[in-house]
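Aim 2 progress update. The chain analyzed this quarter is reproduced below.
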Amino acid sequence: GGEKVRWTAAAKKLVIDYDALTGDILLSSGCISYLGAFTATYREETTARWVQLAEAGGIPCDPKYALVNVLGDQVKIRQWNIQGLPKDNFSAENGVMLDFGRRWPLFIDPQGQANKWIRSMEEERGLISIKLSDADYMRTLENALQFGKPVLLENVGESLDASLEPLLLKQTFKQGGALCIKLGDATVEYNKEFSFYITTKMRNPHYAPELCTKVSLLNMMITPDGLEDQLLGVIVGKERPDLAEEKNQLIIAGAANKKQLKEIEDQILKVLSSSEGNILEDEGAVKILSASKVLSDEISEKQKVADETEAAIDETRAGYRPLAKHSSIMFFCVVDLANIGDMYQYSLQWFTDLFIRGIDDAELSVDVPTRLKNITSHFTFFLYVNVCRSLFEKDKLLYAFLIATKILLADDGGAGAEEVEKVRAKVAEEEAAAREKIRLGEEALDKLRDAIAAERANPEGGSDDEGERLRELEEELEEDKKAHKDVVAAVEEEVDAMRRRVAVAEEDHAKREAMKIDGGELRFFLTGGISTGENAITNPAPEWLSDKAWGELLRSRDLPGMRAKNGPKGDLVADVIADPSRWKVLYDSTEPQSVAFPEPWHEQLAQLQRMIVLRAFRPDKVVPAITDYVSDVMGRRYVEPLPFDLGACFEDSSPGVPLVFVLSAGSDPMANLLTFAASRNNTRVEAVSLGQGQGPTAIRLIEQAMREGFWVILQNCHLAASFMAELEQVCEIKIKQKVKKLSEVDPEAAAAADAEEDSESEGDGEGDGE
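Predicted structure tokens:
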């Protein structure tokens, strides 16, 4: 039966795995010891090199080695997914490293993924959360050690308290027959059920080597695949809550079924290994095996049905995946802004909340593709507006360019072609149905005509009743003709609309194809290539063309897309050499970004390729060219100045997510805030100017505002940097927890803070309080 097939397949796999066991365990040990802190790409490259080295050294291992396949327990991984671990392979590897690692884990967790997972996983065991800033964190840790409770140490920096070293090194010893550990000045009894987890929100922390040897560093930064899966769950939960609920139930049921199957397998193996002599003579063992087989068959059958249902649900969910992919790209555009300045850091929770609002506010449509298009367009601009509030003016165009290029780089064209084919197929189906409606109408008219002809041909006709019947048929025919005419007109209109849909889809696809960019060309545009010394070909016009510009043009020849384009005189470099004067027009123009290139280069080169050439001839006009490029790709609204809207900022905040004003020297938003508060039913406003000793005053005022529902403004936050950690704790714990209890906090309660920054760059910003 099915069990025999399953066990036979498992036995064959075990034979193969056994042969590669030595190398696989060696590689797994290396992964757990050294690769936890690195990205998914680096892990893959490193393990691939290790596999090659193992094979070269004659150590047997799986050529397609993967840590999850060797040490991963699929039942356990499925349970972790239910508890909040992202479903991508990178996160599963992190779970395995945590499970098998001997050192306590330190998660690099800027988006809070590990924090959320650990809290859910250890909730039943009574997880205790602490921070190094807590006054009594050491006492809390001592109690947890004694009673075997899991502890989560959150938001650590690049160093840990020296008193934690014995705990990190697990320096236990026996005292009076009990296992103990020294923590600070106290000796504490050590319970083996104790677990310790550490997380940091820092994106790229630099830990000293001595600390790295004491903990297991695990990189829990979200991956594009993991985020895409999470956002897909959010979209389906909002658009098709029935599917989302059914999917969740199937996942839970599937995990329970697989867990039960694993337990049955373990029970069977235990019976077989403990049985002595002929197993058929052991009545107890036979009964256990028989019962296990029946139960296993039942579970396998249930799981088969569940898998089929889940596959059908996944097929429907797949229709929403393009939006999830696009939104995942948008998040990583936002994350990349941290490379410009440390201030530009945004939490995943903030992004997810914006995403949900974007879905709610987008234009509705019963047609799923249209609805997804509406959400994509609305959310992309909605996110752009929100992020731009916190960017200095000089960085807004760069962010818009980042969005445009990331979207184009992610578009492989395949999805667009498939979408066009789907539209064509759907339109053809709808057009056929519409034509069928006309055909049926014409058939009905033909039947009426035949009936009238039969009445007229009746040789015994002539009675008043028969004449009345003929008149009724003729009147019915006239009415049906008019109705059919209207139907035909409506159908033709529908068909025209359908064909326009196909034309729009084809036009969009053609535009996307024309806009497609190459990663190498984008890198060249940003850097100008790498100079290797003297130019191989002499500059043909040194009087107006600089050697630097000429070097860039020569290096652009190495780009496949540029090399493939040829005019009558050869490639672009050959054209410049043959007649430099043709290109001097571009150099002399006041607006070279708008000037047509000499023929045939304007038509031959794509827009980004023309920008590469423009960068060489006129680098001073690259910014206007980027502005035009973003306008063409994303729309004019992405390059137009965005007015500051305090009301919109307030609507995007919440009691636990304050508004943070980053001010240029001399600017003060106080008057605007007071005017805005007055416009909202004269909301009471209290202000505190932070400085030495003002922290407790601010906390008392915030707690009072939470009870009474007024606003608190904290001024000069830059003078109380040490207080910011405490303020964050108030926002994270006190306010956000009380917001859930609407009866205890007024929804009008909000906190606003302003910090003055000595910067020559003009701009204002709004942060998420994270």
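The CA atoms of residues 336 and 507 lie 31 Å apart. Residues 742-751, 754-770 have pLDDT under 50 and may be disordered. These observations will guide the mutagenesis experiments scheduled for the next reporting period.
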